[in-house]
Structure formats: C-alpha cells, structure tokens
C-alpha cells in the first residue's frame, strides 16, 4: 500500500489495476480493496470521496443475493462486496465497487445517483443502477 499516492500521479504506474481483477484466482486474495478504492476515488471522483483511511471496505461472503452493499452507521461507513458473486463475474468488479462508492454521496438511486452514473459513463465506466443489488448468485 505504501507509495500508492505517489504512483497515482503517474497513471501508467497503476495501469495493472485496470485489469488485474480479471484472473482466475480467488478474488479475495488478488484484489486489494483499499487499493482499488483509492484508485477509483482518484480516477472517477477526483479524490473527493472519504479518504480510504476513514472508511472500511471488506469482503463479505454472507451477502446472499447482493453483489455489494454500502452501510452508514454512527461509527462510520462500510462498503462490502460479495466475493462469491465477483468470483463468478469478475468483469463486473469495477462497476459494482464504483456503484457502492456513489452511495457515499447518496444512499438511494435517485436523481443525484443517476447524475453520477451519467458523469462516470462519460469517463468510460458503465454502471448498472438497478440490478446489481438484486442479482442472484447461483451455486
Ligand atoms: Zn445501489
């Protein structure tokens, strides 16, 4: 993790993050969620979201039908991602984590959420607004 803020000044240095979620090992072992959060915060939000040190991002294999979840409590914010789902559909990782990151701005899928989806799609990432929380995970 050390040195990532330096690397982010030079986009080519973090090019491997663009695709490294796409391989066949268990996603929990190959994807560093804090690293990706920092990367996408820089890439799509100009570092305006909560700094990674003040948020918890973790895997949760008990999410059932949910691909991801964002929870705000009095003690802080937690983003959880479903490794069972993402091991099946690793190509959806960027869309799902960024979807949850938009929930740091607004918790529902209203106009503010859709504005962010529209803005980020112009930067090259398509985010599925409605299905991600409801897709079922088979097997
Ligand atoms: Zn959502």
TrEMBL record:
GO terms for biological process: response to stress. It comes from the Bacteria. Pfam families: SprT-like. InterPro entries: SprT-like_domain. Residues 34-128 form the SprT-like domain. This is DUF45 domain-containing protein. The lineage of its organism: Bacteria, Bacillati, Bacillota, Clostridia, Eubacteriales.
């Amino acid at each position: 993790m050390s040195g990532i803020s330096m690397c982010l000044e030079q986009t080519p240095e973090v090019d491997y993050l663009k695709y490294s979620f796409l391989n066949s090992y268990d996603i929990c072992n190959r994807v560093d969620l804090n690293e990706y959060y920092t990367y996408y915060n820089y890439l799509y939000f100009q570092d305006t979201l909560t700094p990674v040190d003040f948020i918890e991002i973790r895997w949760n294999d008990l999410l059932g039908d949910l691909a991801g979840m964002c929870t705000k409590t009095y003690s802080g914010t937690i983003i959880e991602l479903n490794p069972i789902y993402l091991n099946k559909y690793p190509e959806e990782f960027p869309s799902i984590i960024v979807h949850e990151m938009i929930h740091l701005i607004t918790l529902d899928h209203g106009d503010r959420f859709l504005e962010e989806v529209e803005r980020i799609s112009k930067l090259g990432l398509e985010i599925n607004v409605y299905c991600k929380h409801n897709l079922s995970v088979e097997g």
